[in-house]
């Protein structure tokens, strides 16, 4: 896996931080405890060519050009004369300026990859955590607590809107449940003569699941489309953002993200199959690296990041403490 562009601790000099553009190091290093700028470092100015001499050497004829060095005949312009030294070349087995050799950190010029035949650089130990749009990834614990808070809010909405349908459903199946419990306590496993649920039980069950799904959709999708946060995510200071840019999700992407987890609610009546699908989706983020995307994140191409405690723009990259600066390698 290629390392994402960003500011990281230089493996060759842990006291400095450099910008990795996905293929090589670019720009000058900065102290490791300094706040890195947003994005890549500015391009370094090109070296100024030496100015031409203002006066001709002693004994030279004006307009005749510089006098040749004794013993070094002149040659065509731009090329060294026979026997004259040209630009310095590296000795065999050595690396020239701007080239990347073993044990030698990259130069400060444009990004260059390793020489042919050399592997791309690795990281000592575990690679640095990705920071989408300059923000750290949200922990699984924070995401789980945010989801539980949202489930509580949706449950309260169902108690208000769906409560009557649930009460009618319980009334329809209560004779069957009471007789089944009585026989179980008496050790009777026979099913002969059990009262059947009422005729409206099946229709009420479908109505309950449809209403519960619609309430969940109305609670989550609009707020995620506009801000990338539900009430639970705001409490836990986490936010869903697109992978490619720091911007609102939009209604279509928010709907795709929700549907992977929300639509299986309609399958709860099918031996809990829908609940199993939702459980697999919920725990999938534990096994995804490096972006910790759940299945609904992968479908919508989103990541969940931690929002700075003090607020501010989502692209804020300043570290909040020295103990965990961005891009530190363990």
From TrEMBL:
Residues 1-127, 308-330 are annotated as: Disordered. Residues 53-64, 81-94 have a biased composition (Low complexity). It is a multi-pass membrane protein. Residues 318-330 have a biased composition (Basic and acidic residues). Keywords: Cell membrane, Membrane, Transmembrane, Transmembrane helix. Residues 37-52, 65-80, 103-127 have a biased composition (Pro residues). Pfam families: RDD (PF06271). The chain crosses the membrane at residues 148-167, 201-219, 266-287. It is found in: Cell membrane. Its main location: membrane. Residues 138-300 form the RDD domain. The keyword Membrane applies. It comes from the Bacteria. InterPro entries: Pra-immunoreactive, RDD. This is RDD family protein. It comes from Micromonospora mangrovi. The lineage of its organism: Bacteria, Bacillati, Actinomycetota, Actinomycetes, Micromonosporales.
């Amino acid at each position: 896996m290629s390392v994402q562009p960003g500011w990281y601790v230089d493996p060759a000099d842990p006291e400095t931080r450099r910008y990795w553009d996905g293929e090589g190091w670019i720009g000058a290093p900065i102290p490791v405890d300094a706040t890195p700028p947003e994005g890549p470092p500015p391009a370094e100015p090109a070296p100024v060519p030496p100015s031409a001499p203002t006066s001709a050497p002693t004994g030279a004829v004006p307009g005749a050009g510089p006098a040749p060095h004794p013993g070094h005949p002149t040659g065509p312009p731009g090329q060294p004369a026979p026997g004259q030294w040209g630009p310095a070349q590296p000795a065999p087995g050595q690396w020239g300026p701007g080239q990347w050799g073993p044990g030698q950190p990259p130069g400060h010029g444009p990004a260059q990859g390793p020489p042919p035949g050399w592997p791309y650089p690795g990281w000592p130990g575990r690679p640095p955590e990705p920071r989408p749009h300059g923000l750290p990834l949200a922990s699984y614990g924070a995401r789980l607590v945010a989801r539980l808070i949202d489930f509580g809010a949706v449950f309260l909405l169902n108690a208000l809107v769906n409560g009557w349908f649930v009460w009618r459903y319980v009334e329809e199946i209560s004779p069957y449940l009471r007789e089944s419990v009585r026989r179980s306590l008496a050790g009777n496993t026979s099913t002969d003569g059990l009262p059947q649920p009422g005729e409206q039980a099946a229709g009420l069950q479908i109505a309950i699941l449809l209403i519960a799904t619609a309430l969940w959709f109305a609670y989550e999708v609009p707020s995620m489309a506009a801000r990338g946060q539900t009430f639970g995510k705001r409490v836990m200071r986490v936010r869903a953002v697109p992978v490619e840019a720091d911007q609102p999700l939009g209604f279509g992407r928010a709907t795709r993200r929700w549907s992977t987890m929300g639509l299986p609610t309609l399958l709860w009546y099918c031996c809990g199959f829908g609940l199993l699908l939702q459980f697999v989706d919920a725990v999938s983020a534990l096994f995804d690296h490096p972006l910790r995307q759940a299945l609904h994140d992968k479908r919508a191409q989103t990541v969940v990041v931690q929002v700075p405690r003090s607020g501010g723009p989502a692209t804020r990259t300043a570290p909040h403490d020295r103990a965990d600066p961005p891009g530190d390698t363990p």
